[in-house]
Structures are given as structure tokens and as C-alpha cells.
Amino acid sequence: MKFASTLLLSISLTGCGTVNTVFRDDSVASDKLARWDSRCESIPRVYSGVALDFCKLNAQPRSSTHLEGQPSAPLMLVDMAFSGVADTVLLPYSIYLQDKSGNIPKARLQ
Hints:
- The chain is mainly alpha-helical.
- It has one domain (2-60, 68-105).
- Helix content is 61%, strand content 4%.
- It has a two-stranded antiparallel ribbon with strand order 1-2.
- The chain is globular, with a radius of gyration of 14 Å.
- The mean pLDDT is 81.
């Protein structure tokens, strides 16, 4: 049971906005903004997980969904709540990253 819980937690964290913006390369969040056709041109590193989730909710609607498609709004709001908690815990580190590197820009698709 403990293994199943750990596996489920690790799988769910791969979609977490905070994990995608703080712990992964900037290109991951940047590419996601471009693929979603988000109206956000960049996201700040402070509370970046919540900002990424907001940009996902504010993206152009898609007619079909697949693995890279947009999840439902209720799931995004749940992820936004958990990302808010994680972003608050990581606030000192994200302030340092914001000062050092600035915002995460949206990628330009070729």
C-alpha cells in the first residue's frame, strides 16, 4: 500500500505547476506555454506554479484532448491549490531565482 501511494504521488507531481517551473528546466514551462497557445507571454518565478496553472486555464480552448491536452478546470483548480502551498514553501528559493534569472518567457514555436 505504501508503494502504491508513493507511486501515485510521484505520477501526480509530474503535472504539478510548481514542479514544472521550479525543479525542471525553464524550457519545459516555456514550451508548455507555447503548446497550450497561452495568452501569457511570460510567468514570474515567484508563485510560478500557480501562474503556470492560471495560464493553462487562460489558454485557447482545444477541440480535442490527448496526453498533452488541457485537463478539466476542476482538476486545474485542485492543482492550483496544491501549487500555491508548494510555492509558499519554496518562496525564499523562488525569490532568489527571480532575482537571478527573471521571468520564464513563452517559447516561440517554429
